[in-house]
Each structure stands twice: as C-alpha cells, then as structure tokens.
Write a structure and sequence with these properties.
about 0% strand; about 375 residues; 17 helices; globular
Length: about 375
C-alpha cells in the first residue's frame, strides 16, 4: 500500500513537471512571436524605473506636474539621442563602404596566396577566399540601416508608452504601499528589482562613459576612421554582459586591418583589451559588488535567453530583465526562494539570500519550526 502511494506521488510529480515544461515552452514561443511588441514595452519599463527618482527629487521643490514634465523631457532626450546615434552610424558606414572595396579585394588575394604557400591547393584556396565578399562592409551598412528602420517603425509606440508610464510614476509609491497590505512578499521583491536595476544601470552608464572616452582617444591616436562612432558603440555595448566588449571591438579592428594592415589591427585589439579588461573586469566588479546578486553563469545564460527572445533589445536589457523575472518567479513566493541560492553570486549567499528567505541576515543561529522568529530589522 505504501509503495503504491509513493509510486502515485512520483507519477504525479513527473506529470506536473511535464505540464510545467510544456507551458514554459509555449510561453517562450509566444514571447518570441510577440518580441516586436514586448521589446518596446520592456525598454520603456526599464527606462522609467531607472529615471523615476528624478521626478521624486524634483517633486519636493516644484509642482508634481512640472516634475513629471521634466522626467518626460529627459526620457525623450535619451531616446532621441539613441535614435540619432543609430541614424548617424548607418549613414557613416554606408559612406565608408565604397572606400575600402579595393582594399578588401587586395586582402582576399593576399589570403589566397598565403594559403597556397601553406600547401593548400589553388582550387581549395579559391573556394575559401571567395566566401569573403568585397561588399562585406556594404552588407554591414545595410544591416545597420535595417535595424534603424525597424526601430523607427516602433518609435511612435515607444514614445507613447514612455509618456503614459512617466505620467503614472507619481502614483506608484502609494500603489505599492496598498499592495503591500495584500502581498508583502511581492512588493518587497519588486522593490529589490527596482533598486538592483537602478544600481546596475547607473554603474554601467558611468563605466560605459569612461570606457568610451578612453577607447575613442586611443582610436583617434591610432588613426582609425570614425573614432567617435566606435566610442559610442563601445558605450552601448558596455550594457551587454560578457560579450559586449567583443562586439564593440570587432568594427574598429576590421577597420584597422583595412587601414593599416595586420599590425594596426593587432594594436587596436591590444589597446581595447587592456582598457576594457582593467575597467570592466577589475575596477567595475569591485564597485558594483554583488548589487544584482547574479552569478556569472546565470548572467551569461540570461544574455543568450533574452537575445533569443527579444533580439538586440534583449541583449542590452538582459540583466534587468533577469532581475525582473527573479523578482516575479522566485522572490515573490516563499516556496520558491530556495532557487535564489543557485542564482545568486557566491559572495552574496550569506547575507542577501538569507534575508530574502525572511531570516536574520547574519549569524549562525537557526530558528526551529514552531518557534517564533524575531521581526527582520530590515523589513519595513
């Protein structure tokens, strides 16, 4: 009898797991299909969440409607700057492509001769190098123009979302206070998401500006064309975890090869590697610390997942969106907080993860079931 009951429970557990997996696959497929709609919504949400303290600070000195107007102007200014940068990048790349067509052909011929010197048959070498199209730069420019066009088609929707969300920011604190009466765990998780997102984006922005300035100066000294454009791209790719540095390095390295040969390309790679490694791998992690409480593996997997779902927007917002998903799926329910142990970085497990579980943040003492636990001093 007991064995039959255990088998039935195991079967029910497997069935629930299969249904949950199937539901997850359906949700992911739906999110990918609706990525054109979800991307602007999530981008607007992250921007408003990050910049809403501007309104809160101004509302202490000026009327609320004026503080909201300033917030809207700031949001639209950031959006306009981003669109203008993309348009300028597309135009400059399109104008630069014809300049290096002959140079690309020369490089193709040099590579073919080098392969033949290594003992590769002439026909095999020709087949390999014919895959290198001299119009590669033109194709890149066309791709960039397509991205800009796709963004412009969603710009009206994004502008409208930013307007509505910014207008309603003044009522969010009171709504959160009322919601806390019914779902304190959920509101506490959402506050953690908001604070973590702000810390991450502020620090990433500061270090992105520093990296962009140093990279731009280095490229200008090396004589790489469009040094300012590559500095802007370095700033944007700083928001992409793990591989953003490689994405920002590729265009100036290719231009270095076309402009001055292999030596200049190696110089660009070395300078970029030194600057970005020191600032992004040594200095930035020490300042950020464990503010987002995500392990390196989880961060990398989140980059792949959100890029698969949302494309370029998902790559830039990978960390904030992962924080949002963790707040809703893990931190909001006491029954799933154990999963945070596997998501958080090793340096944050002792304090933050135990606080999320409702325990004291420090100390070895554990409270037994049925014994009243003192109120968390950090809990409002």
């Amino acid at each position: 009898m007991r064995k039959g009951g255990e088998d039935r429970r195991n079967t029910e557990g497997v069935t629930r797991a299969l249904f949950a997996t199937a539901a997850l696959v359906v949700v992911i497929a739906g999110m990918r299909v609706a990525s054109g709609l979800l991307g602007p919504i999530l981008l607007a949400l992250i921007l408003v969440v990050t910049l809403s303290p501007i309104r809160s600070a101004l509302a202490r000195w000026i009327p609320g409607w004026l503080a909201t107007a300033v917030l809207i102007i700031v949001l639209y200014g950031i959006l306009a700057a981003g669109v203008a940068s993309l348009v300028a990048a597309g135009i400059q790349l399109a104008s630069l492509a014809p300049r290096y067509s002959d140079r690309v052909s020369d490089i193709v011929n040099d590579v073919q001769a080098w392969l033949q010197d290594l003992g590769v048959e002439a026909n095999d070498a020709e087949q390999l190098v014919t895959r290198i199209d001299p119009s590669t730069l033109a194709n890149i420019a066309q791709t960039a123009a397509g991205v800009v066009l796709n963004l412009l088609t969603n710009i009206v929707f994004l502008v409208t979302l930013l307007l509505f969300m910014a207008v309603e920011t003044g009522g969010y604190p009171s709504r959160m206070a009322r919601a806390e009466l019914f779902r304190p765990s959920l509101t506490r998780a959402l506050r953690q998401f908001v604070n973590g997102t702000r810390r991450y984006l502020v620090v990433s922005t500061v270090f992105g500006l520093i990296v962009a300035v140093f990279d731009g100066i280095a490229l200008w000294i090396l004589g790489i064309p469009l040094a300012t454009l590559w500095a802007v791209i370095a700033f944007v790719t700083n928001y992409i975890p793990n591989i953003g540095f490689v994405i920002g390095l590729a265009p100036p390295a290719v231009l270095g090869l076309l402009e001055g040969g292999v030596g200049l390309m190696i110089a660009v790679i070395v300078v970029y590697s030194v600057i970005n490694f020191v600032l992004q791998s040594i200095v930035q992690p020490k300042i950020v610390g464990d503010s987002v409480n995500l392990s390196v593996t989880v961060t990398f997997l989140s980059l792949i997942f959100w890029t698969f779902i949302l494309g370029g927007v998902g790559a830039v917002l990978a960390v904030p969106l992962t924080l949002l998903a963790r707040a809703l799926l893990v931190d909001a329910s006491p029954g799933t907080r154990w999963a945070d142990i596997f998501l958080a970085g090793s340096g944050s497990l002792r304090g933050e993860a135990t606080w999320r579980a409702g325990q004291e943040p420090t100390g070895p003492r554990r409270w037994r079931i049925g014994r009243r636990r003192p109120q968390n001093p950090w809990q409002k």
